[in-house]
Design a protein that fits this description.
Blueprint (H helix, E strand, L loop, with lengths): L5 E7 L17 H9 L6 H14 L4 E5 L6 H6 L4 E3 L10 H13 L4 E6 L1 H11 L5 E5 L13 H13 L5 E9 L1 H5 L5 E10 L16 H11 L6 E4 L3 H9 L10 E4 L2 E4 L4 H8 L4 E5 L7 E3 L8 H7 L4 E4 L2 H6 L5 E3 L4 H7 L1 E8 L2 E9 L6
Parallel strand pairs: 1-2, 1-4, 2-3, 4-5, 8-11, 11-13, 12-14, 13-15, 14-16
Antiparallel strand pairs: 6-7, 8-9, 9-10, 15-16
Helix pairs in contact: 2-6, 4-5, 8-9, 10-11
């Protein structure tokens, strides 16, 4: 019996994630994208989409791939040796949100069983605007900020989950939130996310990303003060984003950059809102440490919203010089599930794997496991 091929749609937002390593906190808008490229940003969305397609190619799933021209999908399919039907017109050197929306409508008209898209929260919003919840979707995480619950936990897992969904007799789905940062609140100095709607995704617990949640708890401030007090003299500290790490800065009477990365030394601010290049220029050849917290509701340490602390930076600092700080309440909320890393570099992700000490209070630590997000299995 010949099993008919299931139709898989693929849309890539080629500029998603551009602002990450250069510290622009997003990639929405032509001006931001231009600035990111001028600052030396390197597009990586294609590579992350390829990781997903590679898992589909090796799964031997019977799939009919429907995608867009050039950088919006065709290039990734060719890189994996996959035949694809290209729909829509070719794109120029620049892509916009309307390109994504039009592509999503094309995929709906083609009757795809599953629509995969590579990007971040802005891309998810564009897909939602075009098709709402009429098609089952799955996001390949490739953006700077990914608060939405419509994404798989890593590009590789997106491919595995897509192959499973397309070849299974079961079409069980669940609704997941499309979220994005509230820009008005951001201008007022507050980090909040806004719900824009829901889309259907394959129902597969743990393989799709949770929505970012606030789980600071009362012990976070105490833990942050402990980290600040124990900082070594003459050592650079790269302090990542988050309300918990802001408390570390506050314990030294220092202001911190909203959803940005700062560098301190001897309890003084060395550089604010730094990008990958500035971090490497500052710390190379010197003693340095990284201070980060896990994202509440998701469990990511690296690869979500802190891409300035890149694989190259982590390699320079070393695993032994990474300090994780989190409230007891946040650790409990993870229900024993491991913390995740998704730096885009397999070697660095595997180097980070294992157990890490998490500062949870005054002279209090807990051992917690880290695994690459690409290796989560049920």
């Amino acid at each position: 019996m010949i099993v008919p091929s299931a139709r898989l749609g693929l849309i890539i937002n080629p500029v998603a994630g551009l602002g990450g390593t250069v510290g622009l906190k997003g990639s929405d808008g032509a001006d931001v994208q231009k600035k990111a490229l001028e600052m030396g940003a390197v597009p990586h969305c294609l590579n992350r989409a390829v990781r997903a397609l590679e898992r589909i190619a090796t799964s031997k799933a019977s799939v009919e791939l429907i995608t867009c021209a050039g950088r919006m999908g065709q290039d990734a399919a060719e890189a994996c040796g996959l035949d694809a039907t290209v729909v829509g017109s070719s794109i120029g050197s620049e892509t916009t949100a309307e390109h994504t929306r039009n592509a999503a409508r094309e995929m709906k008209n083609e009757g795809v069983k599953l629509l995969m898209f590579a990007g971040g929260d802005g891309t998810a919003r564009d897909v939602h605007d075009a098709i709402n919840s009429t098609v089952t979707v799955l996001g390949i995480p490739a953006g700077v900020k990914i608060h939405s619950g419509v994404y798989a936990i890593s590009p590789a897992i997106a491919g595995e989950l897509a192959a499973e969904f397309l070849t299974s007799q079961s079409t069980a789905t669940t609704e997941a939130e499309v979220m994005d940062i509230d820009e008005e609140a951001l201008r007022d100095g507050r980090i909040t996310t806004r719900l824009y709607g829901y889309m259907k995704i394959p129902r597969r617990k743990r393989l799709t990303q949770g929505v970012k949640a606030s789980t600071g708890g009362g012990s976070a401030v105490v833990a942050a003060a402990d980290v600040a007090r124990k900082m070594e003299p003459d050592r650079f500290y790269i302090v990542g984003p988050g309300t918990t790490t802001r408390s570390v800065m506050a314990a030294m009477d220092l202001s911190s950059t909203l959803i940005g990365v700062d560098i301190v030394k001897n309890s003084k601010l060395v550089a604010a809102d730094v990008n990958e290049q500035r971090i490497l220029e500052t710390i190379t050849g010197h003693k340095a440490s990284i201070v980060v917290t896990a994202i509440g509701g998701q469990g990511y340490l690296f690869g979500r919203g802190n891409q300035q602390i890149s694989a190259a930076v982590i390699n320079e600092v070393g695993k032994d010089n990474i300090t994780v700080v989190a409230s007891k309440e946040k650790l409990i909320s993870f229900e024993g599930e491991p913390l995740l890393v998704d730096t885009g570099n397999d070697d660095v992700d595997h180097m980070l794997a294992g157990y890490v000490r998490v500062v949870t209070g005054n002279n209090e630590q807990s051992m917690y496991r880290i695994i690459p997000a690409s290796e989560v299995h049920v």
